[in-house]
Structure formats: C-alpha cells, structure tokens
Amino acid sequence: MWDGSNFEGKTLLVHTEQGLGDSIQFIRYLPFVKKLGGRVILQCNQARLKLLFTTVSGIDELFIRGENLPNFDL
Length: 74
What we know:
The chain has helices at 20-27, 30-34, 47-53, and strands at 7-15, 37-44, 61-64. By secondary structure, the chain is an alpha/beta fold.
C-alpha cells in the first residue's frame, strides 16, 4: 500500500478497478503523483482505456489487466 508519501527510487502500481467514468475522472491525478518520486506504472481493467491513457503524462508504463507486470514496490 502507498501512503501518499515520496516514493523516490521505487515503483508505484496504480490500477483501475471501476468503470470507464471513474477511471477517466481519476487518471488526471497521475501527473501529481509522478511528482512525488519514482516510476508510475498503470494497469487498466479495459483494453479500450490504454489508447486514451497513453496521452496522460506521469505514466511510465501502461498495461492491460492480464499482461505480465514488472516488479513494483507500492
């Protein structure tokens, strides 16, 4: 779990778990999260979100649920 603190030198996994609207609404916070430290990887629960989310700054890698994820700390 991540407590919102600086995560310099670590990798944070963020994943969507609700519908399209919730995912789109909350993705806007990732650029602010990225400013707190290390790598940010995002796992989408719907393939159609991947194309849209490639335009969001603050995401280092983007995955669809079911794809192999790299190691992460938080």
